[in-house]
């Protein structure tokens, strides 16, 4: 923006050459000179001095409205350019990244002129990164604090028990108590998948410690390979094991009173907006 217009805005708002000069770190003669140059440029009188009192003409009023609007447009332009240059950090849980990655989101991020990065972590890790300002948004499976985050549910998926296809049961659905003589393969602390299981067991007055043996595994590929052994069980979203169930390597285990559906959420820090994140959110809503 023209420096003369910036000076004029300050003079008009402060109604003083002296205060405008102090605010802009200029000398008073320099401020007066810039106003005179504007009067010459637009061929009109902007300021009259009557008994030491500054009075603005109707031309000054018109110029101020224009200059102020122009300054606001310049500020908006700077903000938009800064946003364009800013790297966008987008998180996903391991399950979503490996088995539910939305194709539309991937294509959009690749084609966008924004620089972006995708961070993979469990639900707890992603929420913590958003709290400290290191992540702009995330696709998560578990619950989140609505006081700290805004979120929308964009997909529902069955949450199932999975075991080896070689496992032979006398009856199904199996009673919960009959599960506890098996080894439980479970994700690490902080995982949304683990939290869903723990919450359900709590409602049944049980916990993961009710199982004969617990093995924590931070990767579903490893969990599914380990499930090929007899007498193991794990819990996951249906899509995670869909291919292995279809090929006959694993199977869904039916359990009494166990019928869970859980939502995936697009989550952002509370009241935070970014043009690219808003577009990603709108694409999730349409999935």
From TrEMBL:
Q: Which UniProt keywords apply?
A: DNA-binding, Transcription, Transcription regulation
Name this polypeptide is given:
LysR family transcriptional regulator
Q: Which residues form the HTH lysR-type domain?
A: 1-57
Against Gene3D superfamilies, the record matches this protein to: Periplasmic binding protein-like II, Winged helix-like DNA-binding domain superfamily/Winged helix DNA-binding domain
What family classification does the UniProt entry report for this protein?
A: Belongs to the LysR transcriptional regulatory family.
Report the source organism.
Erysipelothrix inopinata
Which molecular function GO terms apply here? Answer: DNA-binding transcription factor activity; transcription cis-regulatory region binding
Top-level taxon in the UniProt lineage = Bacteria
């Amino acid at each position: 923006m023209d420096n003369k217009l910036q000076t004029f805005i300050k003079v008009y708002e402060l109604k003083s050459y002296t205060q405008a000069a102090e605010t802009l770190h200029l000398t008073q003669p320099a401020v007066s000179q810039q106003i005179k140059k504007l009067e010459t440029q637009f061929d009109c009188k902007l300021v009259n001095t009557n008994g030491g009192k500054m009075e603005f003409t109707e031309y000054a009023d018109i110029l101020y409205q224009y200059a102020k609007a122009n300054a606001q447009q310049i500020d908006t332009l700077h903000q938009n350019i800064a946003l364009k240059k800013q790297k966008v950090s987008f998180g996903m849980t391991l399950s979503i990244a490996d088995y539910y990655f939305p194709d539309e989101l991937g294509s959009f991020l690749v084609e966008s002129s924004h620089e972006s990065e995708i961070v993979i972590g469990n639900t707890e890790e992603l929420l913590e990164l958003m709290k400290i300002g290191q992540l702009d948004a995330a696709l998560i499976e578990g619950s989140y604090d609505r006081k700290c985050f805004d979120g929308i549910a964009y997909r529902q998926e069955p949450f199932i028990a999975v075991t080896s296809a070689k496992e032979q049961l006398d009856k199904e659905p199996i009673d919960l108590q009959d599960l506890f003589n098996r080894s439980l393969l479970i994700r690490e602390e902080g995982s949304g998948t683990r939290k869903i299981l723990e919450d359900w067991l709590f409602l049944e007055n049980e916990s993961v410690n009710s199982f004969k043996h617990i093995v924590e595994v931070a990767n579903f590929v490893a969990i599914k390979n380990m499930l090929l052994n007899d007498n193991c069980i794990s819990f996951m979203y249906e899509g995670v094991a869909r291919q292995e169930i279809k090929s006959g390597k694993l199977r869904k285990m039916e359990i009494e009173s166990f019928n869970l559906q859980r939502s995936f959420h697009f989550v952002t820090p509370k009241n935070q907006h970014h043009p690219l994140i808003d577009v990603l959110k709108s694409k999730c809503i349409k999935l």
